[in-house]
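Hi Y.,

Following your request, here is the sequence exactly as I used it, all 197 residues.
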Amino acid sequence: MRKLTAAIFMAIVATLSLHAQSATTLQEITERQAHLQRVSTLTLAGWSVANLAVSGIAIGQAEGSNRYFHEMNLYWNAVNVGIAGIGLLSLRKKHSSSTVSSVVKEHYALQNSLLLNTGLDLAYVTSGFWLLDKSKTELSPIRNDRFRGFGQAVIVQGGFLLVFDLTNYFIHRSDNPRLHRLLDTIAINGNGVSLKF
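Below is the corresponding structure, written out as tokens. Let me know if you'd prefer a different format.
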């Protein structure tokens, strides 16, 4: 009877220990994801506020295409500040995922979102180059300046977002092996679910 009690106790301790280890690993992954999202959102907010400040000051003294460059920067970064603000608010209200399934879904959904954003960023940069090209065919000096200034601003802002989103994608993607190792500890068999060391 003592051997059976000891064996049951050891099995319970081993199960609890295994659960604690996988929960800690899961917690580490969710904490890292939340930290990375907070840092990237603050980076976007910082970039946007800096652009608003610089273009807000410079637009008063700028002429020609430079004026339109700063004008587009103001429009673009007003939207970015709004997006960053909403992102920061949602991160404050966000509760960490408690299941492996929810962590995996959120992890890959974020990566897919970043890849989608990268495609949009390429479209922005391409549009900026199109605006620059369009400026060359404009006979009106005002329209020429507007297309050139807006094009330059869209290239700069789209280029920043392209680097920003790709960097975030590769940083989050670097956590895939850790997540896969966690998933490898879970096995489903005819007797139920088991956790492996």
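The helical segments are 2-58, 64-93, 100-135, 141-173, 176-184.

Thanks again,
Q.
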